[in-house]
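Note to self: the last two entries modelled the partners one at a time, which told us nothing about the interface. This time every component goes in together.
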Amino acid sequence: MNRILAYFESIGHAVILAVRSFASLPSAPRILKRTAEHGYYGGYTSLPIVSILSFFIGAVLALQAGISMRDFGAKQFIGTLVGESMARELGPVMVAIILAGRVGSSVTAELASMKVYSEVDALVTMNIPPERLLVLPRLLSVLLLMPVLTIMGVVIGWLGGMVVCQTHSFIGVPPEAYWASLKQFMTTTKMLDGLIKAEIFGFVVMLIACNTGLRTRGGPREIGLAVTKSVVSSLVAILILDYFITQMLA
Amino acid sequence: MSAAKLKTKPSAERQDRSPVGIEVSSLSKGYDHQQVLFDINLAIKPGEIFTIMGPSGSGKSVLLRQIAGLESPDTGKVRINGLDPAEPATRDRFALALVFQAGALFNSLTVYDNLALYPMEHHICPKSEIRDRVMHALQILSIENTFNKLPAELSGGMKKRVAIARALVMEPQLILYDEPTSELDPVMSATIAEIIATLKEQFTVTSIVVSHDRDLALTVSDRVAILRQGRLLAVDTPAAIRSTSDPVIRDFLNPQIDLRNPRFKQLEASNE
Ligand SMILES: Nc1ncnc2c1ncn2[C@@H]1O[C@H](COP(=O)(O)OP(=O)(O)O)[C@@H](O)[C@H]1O
Ligand SMILES: [Mg+2]
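The predicted structure of the combined assembly is written out below.
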């Protein structure tokens, strides 16, 4: 019971944190540099892992589909399947999970250590709102980098599917046929659905990371616990939100 | 270092430079299972150097956090010229500065950026002037060659000095120091004492100093408070504190090392 209450309490705190951060949006021009730095760190350095994972997710989708459809003779739809699954579901979810693991964890660790070692208190006595200096640039940066990473991931996933279709003789779908079937059912709306998901996931992951970090009390042990908590809550939030957003966009 | 140079220019932003007085009335504070401060009453006069001494764990840092408005007392209140320090507007008005016990430097920023953050964020002066101010504050504490270092590359004493320099850059009217000399050598401690005295004389800055440093406490202070187990034992002038007849305070200020009758043996005996 207490844990459920604590859960809702932290959701409440996260919402307040988001509101306070965006209240300092008028100062956005001044935090452009920080936003760009966080965007670079979170986005650019995540590109390799996003590429590798997307490639293999696209590849395994095509492979599994190829195996399942071998007997049905529905191979011509593999491109459609990989295309839609990557764009609307697996692309955004995978990028969000990578974000939680790579960026969310480090943001939580950094803010938690700032909290524990009184750096946040120092900001407060200096009348520099931590929300403006620490949270808002990170929230904005994630909104910028999620669409880019997601589009990258989706396209590389499609390529992964194409490579598998071409190289496995029992599937044997040539690239032209693969792309044709992918394009046939792919629409801008479907791409947009994926990007909307990605933006929401990214925002929520970053908000959880910042909120968990700033609410840490205690010492080094608590910093570690905060990181674990941040990543676990982010993963849970991603999958639960995914269900509801999918339903809403359907 | 000439005293008049401690501050470069009065900043245009802060018009209200009247000295700051602090009123602490029936303040008490506790955490989950522990009462830390009991019914503290203090009136710190404008421009005063007020030192709080007391054994470790007696609640000195907690008291400073209440005065700085970082935490709210359970009962009672703190007023700075009649205003609540928990309000950002109050801290802004008097440019309240707190020198944290462990420095609380921003670990991801260089020393220079640590000092420049406040003037930059508050647009107190043009960029070129910020540079002068920051370098000047570093010079006062003889750490100008650390300006491009990260806090992790500094010794404990240097961090302390950066923390003090960071407070000076704010041109505060009220500075709270949490053990400013605890990691410094005697010469640097003397410099800190001079800085505190100069800020008072030249700019009527009010200072509250938490310290174990007897010399600092009994030379520069106007008044000294002794805090023990969350209660104020005495608040008086340094001369009066020095000549007190209270055995507890005498023992705290001048502990005699008694090899024939060690204290820890007495403790062991009383535990049995
Ligand atoms: N945030 C906190 N939560 C719980 N207990 C605290 C907290 N801060 C301080 N205390 C307790 O309050 C007492 C006084 O601490 P402090 O003011 O730091 O002592 P000191 O006089 O050495 O500065 C200590 O027993 C400490 O354990
Ligand atoms: Mg202390």
